[in-house]
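hey so i finally got around to running the thing on that chain from the lab meeting. sorry it took forever, my laptop kept dying and i had to restart like 3 times. anyway pasting the input first so we r on the same page abt which one it is
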Amino acid sequence: MKIRIPSRLVSGDTIAITAPSSGVPAHLHPRLDLAISALRDKGFRVVEGRCLRHQHKNKSADEHQRAAELMQFLCDPDVKAVMPPWGGELAMELLELIDFNKLNDIEPKWFSGFSDLSTLHLPLTTLCGWATLHGPNLMELGARELDKTTSFVWKILECERGSTVTQYASEKFQVEANQWGTETDAGFNLTQPTKWKRLDGQSESVTFHGRLIGGCLDTIARLAGTEYGDIASFKKQHSGDGVILYFENVEMAPCELTRALYSLRLQGWFKTLSGIMIGRSAGPNVGDENQHNYLDALRSALGDVNIPVLYDVDIGHMPPQMSLVNGAMAWVTFSDNGGLVKQQL
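ok and heres what got predicted. didnt touch it at all, straight out
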């Protein structure tokens, strides 16, 4: 299936905001308002959905309402991008209610964000050929000042199609939770030095290329073996270009992470790839050297694959993170001095 890159966003375009997973509770509405104001300051028109400013039982509304509103915005020719506020936990309830066949027949538009939104990113790309943007969520764009890595999302969304864009590893990352409830316009508190690593422990430079596909492992691992997570077909369709798989872990402890990775391994996800990028893990780890830890989990499932495997990359729930376009051709370079990702849009 041919990958279709949505049109670039320009001033005057309409951006729709709906929450297909978790809604925004009242105490965080001020942060949401700042994020929406940031869109308007850039010249965009903003349409709010009804499934947005409410949260009950871990979701913005029931699954039928969320699916209907998402489909409405994805199919509306006047809407040029759909930007949920963030992810959540229950986007999987929508998959059987979304008409992916219909979406396959219409012009793509940008669908951006990360976390539970990966549940939707993956089939939009693999079933419909839509390039989707795994990167900062809308709520993160409400900061009074964006760091360089986070702000790169606009470079992706606003550049001319056919362009090649290059983004570099961040200098530092954040380990603490966001403080939006008490400091509404706060950016990230970037305190820890960023250091991409090779799983084989080597420091020599390495470069690999292919079409990007991936997301939050906590959810995409649950799609494996279903029509919504058919990575085998995606790899076959793009075998001439190569495929780069990327993912990050948000909640799984080392043993659960190992089980998730082995499930993908047994289903062939790690075969015939050009390379793998793994984001910084936000999941719990162990300090006891006699227990199976995070690095043990990666080495157990991926230590013998004959391709480059990078970890602690700028992807996921320990910000900042790069903006990666599912379906786009990418060239990844690792060196002892840092790393970069070049994408062709």
